[in-house]
Amino acid sequence: MKHNILYSFRRCPYAIRARWALLNTNQVVELREVELKNKPIELIQISKKATVPVLKTSLNKVIDESLEIMIWSIKRSNMHELFGDKNNDISKEILSLIEINDNAFKYHLDRFKYASRFNIEESETHRSEAMKILLSLNKRLKVFSNEGKSLFLVDAKESLADWAIWPFVRQFRIADIKKFDQNNEIQYLRCWLNYFFTHEKYPIVMKKNEPWSKKNEPLFFG
Prior knowledge:
By secondary structure, the chain is of the alpha+beta class. Helices cover about 50% and strands about 5% of the residues. The protein folds into two domains: about 5-80 and about 200-220, Glutaredoxin; about 80-195, Glutathione S-transferase Yfyf (Class Pi), Chain A, domain 2 (Up-down Bundle), CATH 1.20.1050. The protein has helices at about 15-25, 40-45, 65-75, 90-115, 125-145, 160-175, 175-180, 185-195, 200-205, and strands at about 5-10, 30-35, 55, 60-65, 220. The chain is globular.
């Protein structure tokens, strides 16, 4: 019997958010952990990019964009409230935040966290630019907190934006954990991130697995 297959890499933020969505929408997949320096031919054959995550569905449809995997899983579970509950303005706001994260924030994050790969002399500039985006997220959360509402990014309700963005904020934190955790300018953002860190499904999503081999028994996730 055919089943869904997810090619993934534990620490990749794109793969993390795909796994988070799949798990929280109860979509079962065979999880194949990829060794990036030795990608399996099965992955290369179905995706020209061969970058994780890649989902091959039971119907042989290949989805090789993390956001599209998230949307696929949410639609299958009928959790449409995560898209903004049919409110066009809310939906646009959700997508706008994700676009900023996936473009501007990721651009500066890479050049700060992996400065040696780029121009190390500009790393602090990129850190400052990334912080501006985090401060804007913190400002949104502060407003909701002051109103006694839940700490989620859009309309104080958990949405695709929260699921799509937190793995990248996690990555920013890892670059300088002490500095992040002691920064009171982003105290609401830290509380928001901690929601995911303390979630019962976080250890499942972040569990370390051995690289996949077709010699091994399938590892099911979800």
